[in-house]
Fold:
Amino acid sequence: MAHEEMVMSGTGMDFELSESQRAVQELARNFAEKEMRPVVMEYDESQEFPFEIVRKLAELGFMGIRWPEELGGAGLTELESIVIVEELAKVDPSVALTVGSHNSLCTGHIMAFGSEEQKARYVPDLASGRKLGAWALTEPGSGSDAGGMKTMATRDGSDWIINGSKTFITQGSVGSTYVVMAMTDRAKGKESISAFILEKGMSGFSVGKKENKLGMRCSDTATIVFENVRVPKQNLIGQVGEGFKQALVVLDGGRIGIAALSVGIAQGALDASLKYAKERVQFGKPLAEFQAIQWKLADMATETSAARLLTQQAAWKKTQGQNHTLAVSQAKYFASEVAVRATNEAVQIHGGYGFIKDFPVEKLYRDVKLMTIGEGTSEVQKMVIARYLFGD
Structure:
């Protein structure tokens, strides 16, 4: 099914992908079909991290989509990024999550707020895919409530000593470079949160439990632990106390990725349902001829297109340097909820076969729920949207 709604140009709205964007879309689509689809369930069952697939994605430039070529990236924009993530998510959301989080969170944080020395030191390995990045904000006792953070960074001479732990960290056990948020003054709460670059192998840095998840099973999610980890002063990103504000900006970028991932899941569910409805015969005719099925498909297609346009608008606003927080929260909220509805309808259309792992909608149904939770829950997105409505 064709789905190439926009993309907005710098001077106005153009509801067609450019020639270069179509080429990127085709590249990602072909890779997903040829390299990922044959092994989707193998990785899902084993929960093994797809190192070989990630290596091939890195060769295509997909592990450094938006970063400058001189730093090992592909030099593309947020618009190409969402096209890539959507195409990968249609086939395996776990892989799309790996690509999206690696690009937007760890590397994105360093690129947005790191010093030139930090960028030169860390980004080439990350953008080229030689190393995987992880971003650590969430803790066992603090998710949306960053002010409840327990991880502390205390000065020791010119260095910092970090103690604490982070949970639900994407690429937590397979990453090499980590951006970690820690408090420097408990009395100041989130206003003291600062961001540090840590590397696997630092003394006192360890990987804890690897999570056994409902969905997104080959996307690595783990706890990381810091026991008197000594971090050089040059690994502080920006200034002390700027970490929380930095994190909000980074999360905006991550939410665009989650919105694109959600659109991909919804489109994957729609594509699979269309195929099944044309092939499955009941009462002497294909399911596609039943009005009840047609209406489900019509709703899925309409909502998926709307979610895609919201996502593309958010990405375009970011590329134009406009304030995009409201657009991002609307896109993330709407696209993730649409994806949940689409996969639910897809399983219903498939009937009993929708409950069987031989059909792709079963996995999409499990994977999709994370979209309404990760990078800020749907409830958090509605809080952000409401604040803008009230001018806060």
